[in-house]
Amino acid sequence: MSMRPEGLPEVPEQTVMVARAAFPQGSLAIRVRDRLAEVFADEPFASAFGVRGAPGLSPGVLCLVTVLQFAEDLTDRQAAAMAVRAIDWKYALGAELTDTGFDASVLSRFRSRLSDNGMERVVFDRLLEYCVEEGLVAAGGRQRTDSTHVISAVRDLNRLELAGESVRAALEALAVAAPSWLAGQVDVAEFAHRYGPRVDGWRMPASQTKRDRLAQVFGQDALALCRAAWSPGTPPWIREIESVQILRQILVQTYYLSTDTRGREVIKKRAADDEGVPPGHRRLASPYDADARWAAKGEGLFWMGYKVHLTETCDTPTEAEAEAEAEAEAEAGVRAAPNLITDVCTTDATVPDVKATAPVQQRLAEHGIRPAEHYLDSGYPSADLIAAALKQGTRMVTPVLLDHSAQAKAHAGFDKSAFIIDWRARQVRCPAGKTSAHWNPVKQHGTDAIVITFGVRTCRPCPFRDQCTSSAKGRRMLTLRPREPEEALTQARAEQKTETWKAKYALRAGVEGTINQALDITGIRRARYRGLPKVRLQHAFSATALNVIRLDAHWTGHDQHHTRSSRLERLAYRLTA
What we know:
six-stranded mixed β-sheet
């Protein structure tokens, strides 16, 4: 399939006339077409299409359809239908009134093309560039980030169901791709009886003994199928089938192969305490989505899927500043810029928030919109990240982990803050006025650290020893980070205890409203598609749709996104947008 970069077509005169008559006040789709047509250009997608073959539909047009689809939370069939029967959509797409549209499957194939070519964020980035050019987003200022869980688009499976369903998925794929080869390797009638219907816990035996026996049968079938696929005479392309590769991984993570005292081969389910199981970030959770992972947050949230991080501007003024700005806006006839999403980042569910901090800030810097203050919750910071951000001109406003030493927890004795560090002399002075004996740079969990040790002869006769250490050796030890991270961490711990900092940090809570808006409008907490690339695409278009809605509210002067909304909903939206 080829592409001729043309962008959005001109709107036919008859379509313009009917759309203006039907929507005298305009609509979201009409205003997006009038103001953001340049965002939906074809050129950025040229590398995903060939130069020969039948010309395909304009990627700019399909991107606009997808953005409107997410803005109205439509399925592919509903979006394709809207492109045919909605006058304002026809206006936005530059279509004739008699245009019959396109088949809904085009949207699915288009998303696959984008995700296969790493173009999930193209439209989001182009809209962000437009906002920067229009002065709606700029470097400096304040931005805030938070994450939420995303449930995968596949069934939740326990270990027994996963073992059986992975065999079923591989058999289904082989029955289509290599039916003759499969018939020569297994008893098709027996396997069809066992794996014909999907493996469901409700259909399994109630007895634990029978369940254990069924688990062994699943393991034996998986082992036989994998051995057949990886045997020397098997065509190599068979073991390259995704379902067959996933079956092999699930076999290894679920079962343990050994030899008994008689020399017989025995396969049994792995036990975490005996044979061990893979760590969570490597453990497959479904044969149909190799990127979904199980994760937990606190005591009440346990899910299989992904995690999405949203970053938005939050230059919310104080009451006095708001009044001054309102007067200035009234005089100039210009509205203040809305809060806009500046970054969206999707990972599998096991990636901790702290791993997303640096990539988010790096992408903001690449777009030239690095904030002066970055508001985050306690899952995002570390001493190294705080120090590195300060070097780049960004101050992270975030609660950091407090000192967890026994003295700090008990609020008695001498915690780390009671010691004076002399970085030049490479010594530490204790509250009793004694200096440390050893200063040892080390590596702890892959990061630099400094272990400070006081001498036994210094600590044992000290009258404050009971308040300082309970070590059996009778001496105090401290672990520090390198100077810049340690000083940044110390300063952050001191600041977050002040009332001024607490009042300032309250600004971060507004991002919860953005997540709620994303959930209400685009259903961001439930994956529409399978696989991390397509879920990233979903979230990029979700964020784009939210920005379009907020821009439309900014253009029209409305602060709510629904025609009918309660006063409480209006307040919630006003706090976020």
